[in-house]
């Protein structure tokens, strides 16, 4: 299948699954990820597919997500049980494979790690993580203009910048940080000084 056909097929399917705002965000992430792939020499088709599917489980309730995990022997951490915004990454990876027939490990990992990040991320993982944060429909947070520029000029600095701001933000609102996010923050902080 050609890129345009895969993209059209996924777009149709996801429009049915996602709420309108989430669908707009999804397209924003897919095209931002594709543009970042142009600049950084990553696989554009993989970036597009991973961007399209990164939030494919986001419109399921937390209980439904837990059920999918329990039924399919996917581990759920204590943090994932408490913080309802995390689990859709694991469930999304599972659905990408079983419902959308995506078997590429790089794409699946980019979906899996798009919410928390992790240490030593692949280029595609970085691209989807960052595209999720900077896509045009995101409400512009402080420093967004700088982060958006870094996304295309210095990807590790951009990643470290977002991780830094996310860790500070989670501390400010008193939400616990996933272990993978802390590991990623520690691993990349040398790029953001
Ligand atoms: Fe997400
Ligand atoms: Fe997202």
Description:
Helix 1 runs parallel beside helix 3 (44-53), helix 8 (123-134) crosses helix 10 (155-172) and helix 9 packs antiparallel against helix 10 (155-172). With 193 residues, this protein is mostly helical. The chain is globular. The longest helix has 21 residues, at 20-40. It has a single domain, classed as Hypothetical protein af1432 (Orthogonal Bundle). It contains eleven helices and no strands. The protein has helices spanning 3-17, 20-40, 44-53, 62-71, 78-82, 88-98, 105-112, 123-134, 144-153, 155-172, 179-188. One fe (ii) ion (FE2) is lined by residues 25, 29, 54-55, 132.
In brief, what are we looking at here?
The chain has 193 residues and is mainly alpha-helical. It is 67% helix and 0% strand.
The largest pleated sheet is described as: none
Shape: globular
Poorly predicted runs are none
Distance between the termini: 44 Å
How much helix, percentage-wise, in residues?
Answer: 55-70%
What is the oligomeric state here? single chain
The residue-averaged pLDDT reads: 96
CATH class: Mainly Alpha
- How many separate domains? 1
Task: Give the helix/strand class.
Answer: mainly alpha
Number of strands: 0
Number of helices: 11
CATH homologous superfamily designation: Hypothetical protein af1432
Please state the second-level CATH architecture.
Orthogonal Bundle
Bound molecules: fe (ii) ion
| Rg over CA atoms | 16 Å
């Amino acid at each position: 299948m050609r890129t345009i056909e895969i993209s059209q097929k996924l777009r149709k399917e996801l429009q049915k699954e996602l709420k309108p705002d989430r669908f707009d965000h999804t397209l924003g992430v897919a095209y931002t990820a594709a543009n970042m792939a142009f600049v950084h020499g990553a696989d554009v088709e993989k970036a597009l597919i991973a961007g399209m599917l990164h939030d494919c489980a986001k419109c399921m309730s937390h209980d439904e997500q837990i059920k999918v995990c329990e039924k399919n022997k996917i581990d759920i951490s204590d943090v994932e049980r408490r913080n309802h915004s995390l689990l859709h990454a694991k469930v999304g990876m599972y659905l990408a494979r079983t419902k959308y027939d995506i078997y590429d490990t790089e794409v699946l990992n980019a979906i899996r790690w798009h919410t928390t990040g992790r240490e030593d991320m692949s280029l595609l993982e970085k691209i989807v993580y960052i595209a999720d944060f900077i896509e045009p429909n995101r409400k512009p947070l402080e420093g967004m203009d700088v982060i958006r520029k870094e996304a295309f000029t210095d990807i590790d600095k951009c990643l470290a910048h977002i991780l830094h701001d996310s860790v500070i933000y989670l501390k400010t609102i008193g939400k616990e940080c996933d272990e993978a996010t802390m590991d990623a923050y520690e691993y990349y902080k040398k790029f953001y000084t």
